[in-house]
Amino acid sequence: MADVQLKQVSKVYANETVAVKPLDLSIKDKEFLVFVGPSGCGKSTTLRMIAGLEAISDGGLYIGQELVNHLSPKDRDIAMVFQNYALYPHMSIYENIGFSLKMKKFSKSDRDRRIREAAGILGLTDFLERKPSSLSGGQRQRVALGRAMVRHPKVFLLDEPLSNLDAKLRVAMRAEIIKLHRKLKTTFVYVTHDQTEAMTMGDRIAVMNDGNLEQIDTPFNLYEYPLTRFVAEFIGSPKMSVFKTRIHRRSDWQIKINGQYINLGSGLTSRLITGQSDDQRVYAGIRPEDIQLSHIRDNQSFLAEVQTIEQMGSDMYIHVAIDECDALTVRASPDTKVSVGDSICLRVDSNKWHLFDHQKEKTLLRSPFRPAAKSREEHLVS
Ligand code: ADP
């Protein structure tokens, strides 16, 4: 079993920077878990504490039920892959991949078997005699993965491993790493600042912000049911439009947008956490794909003026001005006939609103899929 558990794990650096606030998190055996968040939010520190490269200030770290706080990195049965590959330039690819096995005094034949097995899986067999300088960035990153693989670790830790690659290669390597994870059937913990990378790779994603775990969930749940305004805006591209407004209780619940009141759908209001009041201040969010241009003026539509247009080829993003925020983004068909300055009628999918408390910025909606009594780390930690 190679599950990893963090119980109230925190990190305060010597200069008193609080990098990670007490964190409860359980990474399942064979799971692909991604830490994502903006630069400086504590992702790498968390990963480095799991690796044993950074001392834990407080709390307990368990790998496969064993408390490992005081075990050195080499005794933790983990392997880490770094952004900068960290290959030895004077060694061949064969020697680079096998280096850790040599240090651990594996026999020559065992080393050879493991190196060739990893090289085979990674498509490096024809490059084993070469030096790193003659390989491309993607191939070098595969060597770094190979070097981790030959150790047959319980857990792979990957810290922004694709950041040095160009955009096209990054997409190709994502797919390779996902395939590798399936093949090796081992726990992978992956750090990235790129939400698209996180969404496409993770079985679950842990979103961090300012040393806090905001939410840990599947990509689908993060996108559909963000627990905080931060997650709502961080996950998704182009991002969700979020603005300050008020909700009103008439015969139906309504929301004010651009001075107009439009209805909230019954599917949505049935999920409203009890205790919300008439004229309550909220943050409301709506994703670009949940607003459409419409010819019908009804209680789900409003008028707004086109501010800017982005033609993407596959889609068109129309940014409209509303009273409550600088711009609301609408995803439209690329052949939509609109111009800057036009007043257009927009219809919102009334069950797709996201509502957050205006002070703590936490969701006011229950997730339909979230069982009432899930383990603690599945919930917002704050
Ligand atoms: P991320 O990986 O999300 O970019 P880090 O874990 O690297 O974030 O850093 C979290 C916070 O800890 C940041 O404020 C960073 O400046 C600080 N930090 C990181 N390493 C050190 C260190 N060795 N000494 C002091 N502060 C550090």
UniProtKB/TrEMBL annotation:
It comes from the Bacteria. Residues 4-235 form the ABC transporter domain. Gene3D superfamilies: 2.40.50.100, Nucleic acid-binding proteins (2.40.50.140), P-loop containing nucleotide triphosphate hydrolases (3.40.50.300). SMART domains: AAA (SM00382). GO terms for cellular component: ATP-binding cassette (ABC) transporter complex, substrate-binding subunit-containing. InterPro entries: AAA+_ATPase (IPR003593), ABC_transporter-like_ATP-bd (IPR003439), ABC_transporter-like_CS (IPR017871), ABC_transpr_MalK-like (IPR015855), ABC_transpr_MalK/UgpC-like (IPR047641), Mo/tungstate-bd_C_term_dom (IPR008995), NA-bd_OB-fold (IPR012340), P-loop_NTPase (IPR027417). Keywords: ATP-binding, Cell membrane, Membrane, Nucleotide-binding, Translocase, Transport. GO terms for biological process: carbohydrate transport. GO terms for molecular function: ABC-type transporter activity; ATP binding; ATP hydrolysis activity. This is Carbohydrate ABC transporter ATP-binding protein, CUT1 family (TC 3.A.1.1.-). It comes from Alkalibacterium thalassium.
